[in-house]
Amino acid sequence: MAWRCTGATNAELIANMAKAGIINSDQVVAAMSKVDRAHYVQFPKSAYDDYPQSIGHGATISAPHMHAYATENLLPLLKPGARVLDVGSGSGYLCAVLWQLLHDPSDPRSKESKVIGIEHIPELAEWSIENLRRDGLGPELDEGRIRVLAGDGRKGLPEDGPYDAIHVGAAAPALPAELVEQLARPGRMFIPVGTEAQQIFQIDKDADGNVTQIPLWNVKYVPLTDRENQT
Q1: 157: which of 116, 147, 210, 226 lies 20 to 30 Å off by Cα?
Q2: Count of H helices and E strands in the chain?
Q3: Per annotation, catalytic residue among 33, 62, 89, 91
Q4: pLDDT, tens digit, 9 for 90 and up, residues 92-102
């Protein structure tokens, strides 16, 4: 089971998720191996435990297996040159993983790759930038290839869209129309939806703009909200 993937090191955590069938691609193994989760949690000793952890301000970093599921789900859209939006980007961990999948020095399209994180708690947005720099991604931040902004993620960031992939790290009570609108054609969003009962949905937009919603599995996430209602 997913929560049994805890490891003593980042490499062991990733290996356990691969053995459990959560990670199925070499690309995701490579990307997650380049991002040390210890840089993105409050308590590094428990960085490789496979469960959600508080990062303060009523927010959490998702369990590693959920980040792995999300990355695998979005992988078909995560190519050099893609634009990706991470809503509720928290500690910045997934922004780093997503960047590794878009960055290929041998591919000239990589110059157009961009990962944008949007986080409604300014302190977390600032902390995530510190985390990304600590993890060696300072040049990408300075060049604007990775950006983390404080703002209302429910509204997305239309001025930098459309996005080939959107990840939402908190549960919306209903599917946010503004985020669907900001998906590229084609594009995909991975989002938990619901209040008491929540499900992960895969939202696909095809080349003609047709949108399909595919329920994946039941989950329990913190709510996608604003700072005033954060608990």
Answers
A1: 210
A2: 7, 9
A3: 62
A4: 999 999 999 99
